[in-house]
Amino acid sequence: MPLDKAIQFHKVCAFLSAFGGLVHTWAHYNHYAQVPATYQAVYGPTVWISGVIIIVAMQLLYSTSFEAVRRGEFEMFWYTHHLFVLFFLALLFHGRNSWNPNYWKWFLVPGTLYFIERITREVKASKPVGLISATHMNNKYAKVFCLELEKTGPIRRHQEGQYIFLNCPMITKFQWHPFTISSPPEQRTLTLHIRNMVCILAFQCKRQKGEEEGKENKSGHKTTQKIQTAKPIS
Fold it and tell me: What is the pLDDT along the chain (234 residues), one digit of tens a residue?
């Protein structure tokens, strides 16, 4: 699935989850208001604890996902978005006697596949990839960086339309940004054309490369700038 389509699908799922969660929460509060004794006897007190955890996690996830927050405070968006782990764990225990009798059936297969995919991604992302060049391609209509990477390790093969997650450790070790691969599979190097200010990532990599080349000139020792990439994703 192309990156833009994946993001759109993700937003649709988020909207449906928010709508379903709102209706679900209203129904339970309405039920408790009408028959509190029966409700307490059936579900017990722990359902409120897991429910509050889910609501708080969703509140933080959604409130930091607006475009103004993503562009102005990306770190806040990035780190709070990882509350999805807490969200899904709380769902497993959101039910009678601290257990959701049905959710785990829906979670088992996709959750296992996602867990395996994350492990695979971390293993492949631990291998650094050499940065060949970072080129400014600015004009009056757009600001663009072109990153040219060594086609080795996790990105030695790719197909048309795939994208990769890119990390520059000198900026942060924890942020990974998805970028569509712009070079054809038969090209010997891999290129990424990155628009707008998000390409500060590339600028920082290029600046660091220049600083290390300056050190090489003074010390006589060659240094190689490295960035990290995850496996290309369709």
Answer: 677 788 899 999 999 999 999 999 999 999 889 988 888 888 888 899 999 999 999 999 999 999 999 888 888 999 999 999 999 999 999 988 888 989 999 999 999 999 999 998 888 888 878 889 988 888 777 788 899 999 988 888 888 888 888 887 777 778 888 888 999 999 999 999 988 654 455 445 545 544 444 444 444 443 344 455 655 665
- Of 180, 188, 173, the C-alpha closest to 227 is 173
Say whether 6 sits in a helix, a strand or coil.
helix
DSSP label at residue 233: B
Strand, helix or coil at 124? helix
- Smallest CA-to-CA distance from 152 within 188, 192, 194 is with 188
- pTM, rounded to two decimals: 0.72
Domains of the chain: 3-101 (no CATH), 127-229 (2.40.30.10)
Phi, psi of 38 (to 5 degrees): -65, -40
The string of DSSP letters for 49-75 reads HHHHHHHHHHHHHHHT-SHHHHHH-HH
Residue 228, helix vs strand vs coil: strand
Helix or strand (DSSP H, E) at 209? helix 200-219
CB 80 within 8 A of CB 175: no
